[in-house]
Amino acid sequence: MSYEAEVSRGNPSAFLFLIDMSGSMTDPYAGGKRKADSVADAINKLLSNLSIKCTKSEGVRDYYEVGVISYGKQVAPALGGELAGQTLASISNVANHPARVEERTKKEDDGAGGLTDIKVKFPVWFDPKAAGATPMCKAFKLAHETLAPWVAEHKYSFPPIVINITDGESTDGDPSEDAAAVRALETQDGNALLFNCHISGAQGSSVLFADAEEGLPDQFAKLLYSMSSVLPEGIRDGAQREGFPVSEASRGFAFNADLVELIRFLDIGTRPSNLR
Amino acid sequence: MLASATAWWAPKAGNAAQEYEDAYAVEAAALRFAVADGASETSFAKQWAEMLVDRFVHEPPAPAGLREWVAPMQAAWAGANQPKATAWYAEEKARDGAFSSLLGLAIDHGRWRAMAIGDSCLFVVRSGKILRAFPLDKAEQFSNRPVLLSSVARANQRVWDEVRSDEGELQGRDQLLLMTDALAQWFLVEAEMGRRPWAALAKATTQEAFSAFVDLLRSGGALRNDDTTLVRIEVAA
After folding, report:
1. Which of A108, A118, A267, A276 to substitute to test the interface with B, most B CBs within 10 Å?
2. Interface mutation vs chain B, best among A55, A107, A157, most B CBs within 10 Å
3. Which of B14, B43, B88 sits opposite A121 (nearest CB)?
4. Predicted confidence band of residue B6 (pLDDT cuts 50, 70, 90)
């Protein structure tokens, strides 16, 4: 049986994000925002969600270890502030050390049929700095290097989930083999999962959890699809509950998801099991 | 009608006793009983679950009056349970509120009446048979996302349509068992396989015996590792 390990402080899970910060990520995307800014917002929102999820009365419980690697001009760990230089940090460390905390306003249901403006804290760990090429092979190599010792130390944990967000073509070769090496990492509960989000400029309607290569508009989308893990049952059920059409062949692959969809994709993809 | 009640509990294995987030209340004189399962993804879930069961046994809600019954507790919550901490996540988490299931049972004039939100369950057992399973009656109905009662009003918009209630008459020697979801799921699986889970639970006559029984079920994989609570009521002959 795979992908059934309960996530606990004794057996935490790991998420590693690989973020394309090549020069082309400064292109505008849905809503006129730069791709790099949309992706940074999504990552910050996700880290915030994960921190809040692990918050209990007494503080943040270390159910997860999290890392962000950006690739572009350099391939390097990308969390800012006190976490700079760390490839993986415990979620309590992440929660306690954002680079800064911004205040944003959002509309919220007031419980009496109306909307009210409320101020919410928006912590920022990751600032986009897009420049250079797209060394995706190198990014997967660093992911492998980061997670190989992790799986050795966490044999009974839910396997790590690696989420790669990119706008397209690798510039340092075909990443298939390096991606396969990441997926080959394993704990006793299964192989590491690799999910890819393709923030393309190409025409084509957005697809989340694609289950076939047909219909994907170009070779880069098809390549990323082929490198993506098939969703384990628990995550597939989560996607289904949220109303996504999924099949047993569905993979962790999103094409041209807008910011809201991207956050939902990340949110579902990082819900390996609940913490009960 | 005379009845005696016992209540046993066990925290999730790997968690400390103070991390147990179920709650139960037994008001033997008034013949009111409640169990609640504080959602582990929320902060202060234990306090919210405690608040619900205590109020249920002391001032039970009128039928169809649950929204009004919860309102003063939500107001008290908003006033009292804001963390003093300044950490951004504590603030955000507090705004999300705490969530809990609630199962309440009252015995009056030879009848039982129960209300439930979420997946904590009541089983009425008579003459070696389950007479009633409420609100869930099949093991497959348990999911990871039950509807739960929140300490913040805006999160309860969809709850009110999900409140279940039920009632029935009682006879001497009936057993009423209130339990949180993991144990209830085990109970239904056992019953579906033709076994007599109420008899197994009746043997746990001390807290130590109940804890040992829970450990045994967990180690065999029969019981999901979760906070576990049982209130067992026996109607006098």
Report:
1. A276
2. A55
3. B88
4. very high
- The CATH number of whichever domain residue A113 belongs to comes to 3.40.50.410
- A61 to chain B: which residues are within 8 Å by CB? none
Lowest mean pLDDT among A109-118, B15-24, B101-110, B221-230: A109-118
Segment B166-174 mean pLDDT: 96
**Nearest one of B23, B46, B48 to B33, comparing CA atoms:** B23
Classify residue A36: in a domain, yes or no.
yes
Inter-chain contacts counted by CB atoms under 8 A, chains A and B:
60
Whether B81 shows a pLDDT value over 70: the answer reads: no
Predicted pLDDT of residue A271: 65
pLDDT, greater one: B40 or A275: B40
A173: left (phi over 0), alpha (psi -120 to 50) or beta: left
Closest residue by Cα to residue A143 from A64, A62, A76, A228: A76
Across residues B83-91, what is the average pLDDT?
Answer: 76
Spans of chain A below 50 pLDDT: 273-276
How many domains would you assign to chain A?
1
Q: Distance from first CA to last CA of chain A, Å, rounded?
A: 19
pLDDT of B25 strictly over 90: yes
Read off the pTM: 0.81
Contact B14 A274 (CB under 8 A): no
**Which single residue is written with the structure tokens 């709850």?**
B159
Residue A5 falls inside a structural domain: no
In chain A, whose CA is at the least distance from the CA of B91?
A121
Nearest CA in chain A to B88: A121
Chain B residue with Cα closest to A109: B154
- Interchain CB distance below 8 Å, B157 and A111: yes
Q: Where in chain B are the domains? A: 3-235
CA distance A89 to chain B (A): 17
By C-alpha distance, the chain A residue nearest B14 is A10
Checking if the pLDDT of B76 tops 80, the result is: yes
| CATH number for the domain formed by residue range(s) B3-235 | 3.60.40.10
**A171-174, Cβ contacts within 8 angstroms, sequence gap of 24 or more:** A171/A22, A171/A133, A171/A134, A171/A135, A171/A136, A172/A133, A172/A134, A172/A135, A172/A136, A172/A137, A172/A138, A173/A137, A174/A137, A174/A223
Residues of chain A found within 8 Å of residue B43, distances taken between Cβ atoms: 55-57
- Domain, as residue range, for A92: 13-269
Decide: helix, strand or coil at residue B31.
coil
**A22 in any annotated domain:** yes
In chain B, residues with a C-beta closer than 8 Å to the C-beta of A110 are 154
| Percent of chain B predicted with pLDDT > 90 | 75
Q: What is the ipTM of this complex?
A: 0.83
